[in-house]
Design brief:
The protein is mainly α. Helix content is 58%, strand content 9%. It is built from 4 helices and 2 strands. The protein has helices at 25-45, 48-58, 60-68, 79-90; strands at 15-18, 21-24. The chain has a two-stranded antiparallel ribbon with strand order 1-2. A hairpin with a 2-residue loop joins strand 1 and strand 2 (21-24). The longest helix has 21 residues, at 25-45. 1% of the residues are buried.
């Protein structure tokens, strides 16, 4: 393999080559699944998806492209703004 961290074997291969070693398919596949599960958990726990969308919507090139194709980008409101709006409605 050309790449040290490459694992270009199919899913049901008898062995997986990764980081210069061969691993049993079951163990390697389970490690990949658990790694992805933990990464998605961390992403959800720290609101990573929302932060990424907020960052991307703040980039001007995306807003320029959206204006050209007539797409409205969503504006995400902060939690404090939402609670202030609820207080105004209650009054």
């Amino acid at each position: 393999n050309a790449n040290f961290f490459g694992f270009r074997t199919h899913f049901f291969a008898p062995q997986k080559y990764f980081a210069g070693k061969f691993f049993a398919t079951y163990n390697f596949n389970m490690a990949v699944i658990w790694f992805m599960t933990i990464m998605l958990y961390v992403l959800l726990y720290f609101d990573g998806l929302k932060k990424t969308l907020d960052y991307v919507s703040g980039i001007t090139i995306f807003s320029r492209i959206a204006k050209k194709i007539n797409v409205k980008l969503p504006k995400f409101r902060k939690k404090k703004q939402l609670s202030d709006e609820k207080n105004v409605i209650k009054k």
